[in-house]
C-alpha cells in the first residue's frame, strides 16, 4: 500500500534512474548495444528492484506514465551516448504488454524519438509473449508498424512461460532473447544444451538474431560461441550500470 502511493510521487521527485547493460558480439566481446534496466532509489527503502515495482505499476496503471518516461529518458541517453561517439546503439527498452497494447503507444514512441532527435534504428523494443494475450493480430500489426518506422523488436525471455515456437514464425520480430534459465547450466546439463542449440538453429533458419542472457562464466561463453549464438549479455561482460559508466567502458569486453 505504501509502495503504491510512493510510485506516484517517485516520478515527480525523479527517484528513478536508468541503468544500461552491454550486449556483446559472442566471438569478439565487442559491444553491439545496450539493454536499459530501470532502478528506483527509494528515499527510505533504498534500491527497489523493477521485478517488484513494475508488476505493481502494471496493477495500478502507473506503468503508462512510467513507461512513457522510460522511453523518453532512454532515447535521450541513447542520443547522448551516440553523439559522444560510443558504439553502444541500439539501446533496447523493455516494454510492458499493457503499455504495448494501449492506444497511442506508437505515437508515444515516435514522440520520444523526435524529442531526442534519435534515429529509429538506434532504438529497440523488448516484448514478451504476453503481448499476444488478446490475440496475435494486434501484436503483429503493432510490430509491423514499428518495423515500418525503422524500429526493431526483440522477443524477450524466450523459452520460459508460454513461449511457443509459432511466435518465432508469426511475429515480425528481428531478434530472440534466450532466457537465462537455459544458460545457467548449459555446460553441464545436456538437456538445456539441446534446447538452446535447437532454438538457435530454428531462429537462424527464420533469419532471427539470437541473444543469450545471463552469461556469467567463460565456459558458458565458449559453449555459446560453438553453438553460433550471435550476441551475449551477462555479468561476465558487465553488470547494468549508469550511463556515465558505460561511456568509460572499452569497446571490447571483458
Ligand atoms: O534489472 P532486473 O534484472 O532487476 O530486472 C528485473 C525485471 O524487470 C526484468 O524482467 C526486466 O525485464 C524488468 N524491467 C527492468 N527495467 C524495465 C523497464 O524499464 N520497463 C519494464 N517494463 N520492465 C523492466
Ligand atoms: O527479463 P529481462 O530479460 O528483461 O531481465 C534482465 C535482467 O537480468 C536484469 O534485471 C539484469 O539485471 C539481469 N541479469 C543480467 N545479466 C545477468 C547475469 O549474468 N546473471 C543474472 N543472474 N542476472 C542477470
Ligand atoms: Mn529484457
Ligand atoms: Na529476459
Key features?
single chain, TIM Barrel, 10 helices, globular, binds guanosine-5'-monophosphate, binds manganese (II) ion, binds sodium ion, cyclic-guanylate-specific phosphodiesterase
Descriptive account of the structure:
With 254 residues, the protein is an alpha/beta fold. Helices cover 43% and strands 21% of the residues. The chain is built from ten helices and ten strands. The protein has an eight-stranded mixed β-barrel, surrounded by four helices. It is globular. Bound molecules: guanosine-5'-monophosphate (G) (2 copies), manganese (II) ion and sodium ion (NA). One guanosine-5'-monophosphate binds at residues 21, 37, 94, 156-157, 180, 213-216, 233-235, 240.
Q: What is this entry, summarized?
A:
The chain has 254 residues and is of the alpha/beta class. The chain contains ten helices and ten strands.
Ions, cofactors, ligands: which are bound? Answer: guanosine-5'-monophosphate, manganese (II) ion, sodium ion
State the CATH architecture: Alpha-Beta Barrel
Specify the CATH homologous superfamily.
EAL domain
Low-confidence stretches: none
Percent of residues in beta strands: 15-25%
CATH topology: the name is TIM Barrel
